[in-house]
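Thread: "does anyone have the structure for this chain?"

Original post by V.I.:
We have the sequence but no experimental structure in hand. Need at least a predicted one for the grant figures.
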Amino acid sequence: MSNLLKQLRQYSIVVADTGDFAGIKKFQPQDATTNPSLIAKAATMPEYRDLVDKTIADARKRSTSTEIFLASAMDGLFVAFGVEILKIVPGRVSTEVDARLSFDVQGSVDKARTLISLYEKAGQPQERVLVKLASTWEGIQAAKILAKDSIRCNMTLLFSFAQAVACAEAKVQLISPFVGRILDWFKKHTGKDAYPAHEDPGVLSVARIYNYYKNHGYATEIMGASFRNSGEILELAGCDLLTISPGLLQELHDAQGELERKLSPEKAKANQEDKLSLDEKAFRWMLNEDQMATEKLAEGIRLFAADAIKLEKMILSEMK
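Reply from O.Q.:
Generated one for you, tokens below.
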């Protein structure tokens, strides 16, 4: 009998959710994802001091103002960590656009192109990079524009069916539904301390999206994200991709048992749902009617923006 992580790899692509190179090397995932929170945490680790110092020094040489320096250093750090990650994983790395651009279509497009340009200058082709954008209406429209340049996007902070439908219609590369954060909201608002994995609201949300995509022939990939426990992960075995923190990867590696595939295109046929088409007005109304998704999307943007600001403060402190 093999461990659960090995069995999970048979059904889903396993992605490491970390900026820590050691954690990525240990579990040998196909892809890796990062965000401002993970990069800010990794940037404070002593083992990455040289990488951080070099990136900040390079940004200082290119800058004529504090504003330009900060933007250059932030982009440089995200890409520097991404480049190192791509030396480890055989697949793709996801790099996030500043959350403060979540309602700015052109700003998001420009930042995405800047990140891709930096990756290409570092010798990494754009095919190996997924640009992460918040799943706002503006973020989805930015992804639609970028797709015309063959720049692939990973739509993050996705909590609702409306967001998933709009992303599929925009033909984005990949979506990242946040399983654990959905669970957090329901636990807070229902007073329940726990849910069985098969009744977990985040799990049910991803399963619904998976079935909808497979039944209607959408090519957009689904990557379950933001897990709170291994039960959520096992209940989504068969999802296209699953991005998992090092702690939960270790837990799955250490666990023995038989793993059942829970999601598949064949099983999806039993859960058919009519196809929707959402313009901006319909999208905004449908999202507005979902209290959980509205609150978690706004909160997620604020949290990622706060982490970006923390990283900026750390960079500025290096100038003193």
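V.I.: this helps a lot. The two ends are 56 Å apart (CA to CA).
O.Q.: and The first strand starts at residue 13 and ends at 17.
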